[in-house]
Model the fold of this input.
Amino acid sequence: MKARRGFSLIELIITISLAAILLSIAVPSYTALVIRANRTTAMEAIMAAAACEERIYSRTGAYSFDDTCKTTPEGYQQLVITNLDSSQGFRVVAVPVGRQAEDQCKSLGLDHTGAETVTDGATKPAAQCWAGR
Done:
């Protein structure tokens, strides 16, 4: 009798099962990593916008609140700069867009005093979110 070549059905089923188990572990971990990376990008954009607002304030004596300091953190967040205390303060908030809305930190915010906040139903405290965890 000739020796058979190839895979048996059992071997194929076992291989596919192992691949499915590995994928079920890897995909959520990868998704969480991407969300954390996008959150870090949003933090950088918030800090850049806040620094821009402070530069404008040091030159003109007032914050701008227009699109001068807004940047788009790669389409995963939308920056919103709001007026606080009759033009003597500001808050920059990064609102999540698309898949980033699954982030436990939701919207990250920073005001003119340097206070870091989270809003929109965040399930993590602000200190953990801003630490990048």
